């Protein structure tokens, strides 16, 4: 069919419409992602009105300009005064249009974007399109008819699965689910959408409203799917607000007429909007994008990144090698001798063998990946690599010796990175002839899985090296957070402090099991003592011994962990730590002998144990975390409070729906956090020193959010 010449276009804010033959083409152009802000909603409503009024228009086509159809509601508007027209009203206007409306989808059609498409009468998607209802990830439910239209269109079970997982479906899957009517062949859906609309006009096709679709015809199957989802949600989404609201809204689709179902959806949506979980999750959404905007990523371009070297094939070196191999980079590993190199290679292979055993990788795919891996005991193997990450023993002398070798062999401009957890990277940089090339890349264990990458910026590093760190994170699909040099950078420095708060509570009367339970009930997957057992108590023990000489003799020091380690109880790997792990079990059981050790330590320290409520445990735990977080921001170790939040969300299992520790503190109220710290300081003024930043913010009546503007 020939493409008719377009008529002059009319713009209504970011929405333009023009006639092409019989079809009124409505284009949404609201960069970067065509979010449905108030101007778009107004423009869409006006475009539909215009199409209705235009007797020459026989059909309407809705398309998005740029890379996406529509990414959904404008998330920035949530929590602000609502502006008319609302999105459900716009969707209803589209659905009620008397002329067939076609949505031609390319890129993302997510949330409200898919809801617009579901309100259209016919849908076509480009092969690369992504469709989904991801509102659950923001603490919301699809609030523009998604909970009522999707089940009617594709059935309760798949609709609930999409809404509760929040995942994006590809166009092919969308076709098989019945979400779309036609799969296009081109990446840009506009031309094929126009042809589709013309075809519908030629065939005199009727309007076809999703509200009248037959997806709920089998009531029994729908009811069974709903009840299964309810049971599953109760189990898997414990503590989360919006998933059960999604189930309730879909129940409305089953039991109520469409308009009443829409009213129920609205009511439940507004409850979600008001929930602090919505605020926490949306903070997390923006924070994880803000961390990418470090000063160096704006001022400099990354250096080339086509090959990598790793020094050390232990826990971290092997994990980092896998992360790099998975990103398609060729990797050269250097170890100190042949047996260690063989172990390093075996560590890498073990990861892929595990995937093969689970059926998630074929032996051929493993062979292809391992073909990019090479090993050597000579640093000369690094002569041509673009970046080297050092992951050898945590000792300054060993690190400096390695960097001297790197200085000797690496090509000019190669990035020289250390994965040190605590050591002074300025000192490492100063020991070689090219300090401008030295940066910290602090991965988290297991490095091929954990998303966080702290990019530690020493004083002399050049901006393009830091930018290369961010580029590497992108290649490795990690979340980078810029950190300054100090003992433990952002994450481990703060961890050291709240871990002490936990130890103090343990000595004062709370059992490690009570503390772990309180932390889990707060939303963490594990408590701090379970984490110690998983990581291995020997690591922390070695650090404590190393730092013993420099410890403030006046500061409180709880010795329980030392007593446990002295017995050789290092956690899961020795089947005993704070918990017992009978026959290698991964979930521990409380150990009466550990409780006896704690009792003995209380006697030695002259402490009469008292009881702690869960609420007090969390108040102390969080106050310690937030106070040190404030110090880290004050000293510019973290650029903003949100960088602390992202560190904890991606490196330490902090519950996402609370947004991160600094966002949590804002939610609780900084005056309350400060009052807690001052109260706790009465008994231990050395440990509990209010951060000057916290004090200043409280005096100014400000919060951490006020410091979150981009640098
Ligand atoms: N509202 C406002 N801004 C948004 C947005 C939205 N829905 N989606 C993305 N943005 C912004 C981002 O913050 C970012 O801004 P920045 O450049 O200033 O940092 C910019 O758009 C580009 O986003 P990304 O960096 O994420 O771009 P990508 O190309 O990597 O990804 C995307 C594109 C897949 C669309 C991704 O942005 C995304 O997943 N967006 C959110 C989708 C979503 O959750 N939609 C549901 C919204 S809630 C809803 O619709 C409620 C309704 O049911 C009533
Ligand atoms: P590990 O002990 O498992 O591995 C260290 C490896 O380095 C060993 O295989 C050893 O043979 C090799 N090695 C030592 N000296 C070498 C030399 N001169 N040349 C070449 N290879 C040498 O240690 P792990 O846990 O992998 O830690 C490595 C580094 O990563 C440390 O700096 C540590 O602080 C840091 N780190 C550790 C994390 C963890 O959870 N284990 C997390 C983040 C960072």
Write up this protein.
It is a single chain. With 711 residues, the chain is an alpha/beta fold. The protein is built from 29 helices and 20 strands. The strands form four sheets. It has an eight-stranded mixed sheet, sandwiched between helices. Strands 1-2-3-4-5-7-10 form a seven-stranded mixed sheet, with helices on both faces. It has a three-stranded mixed sheet with strand order 6-8-9. The radius of gyration is 29 Å and the shape is globular. The model has no long low-confidence stretch (mean pLDDT 96). It binds 3-hydroxybutanoyl-coenzyme A and 1,4-dihydronicotinamide adenine dinucleotide (NAI). The site of 1,4-dihydronicotinamide adenine dinucleotide has 25 residues, from helix 13, helix 14 and helix 16.
Short description:
It is found in: Peroxisome. The model has no long low-confidence stretch (mean pLDDT 96).
SS elements, strand count: 20
Q: Provide the structure class.
A: alpha/beta
What ranges have pLDDT less than 50 throughout 5 or more consecutive residues? Answer: none
Number of helices: 29
Strand content: 5-15%
Mean pLDDT rating: 96
Question: Rg to the nearest angstrom?
Answer: 29 Å
Shape: globular
Strand adjacency order, main sheet: 13-12-11-14-15-16-17-18
Biggest sheet statistics: 8 strands, mixed
Distance between the termini: 53 Å
Helix content: 40-55%
Bound molecules: 3-hydroxybutanoyl-coenzyme A, 1,4-dihydronicotinamide adenine dinucleotide
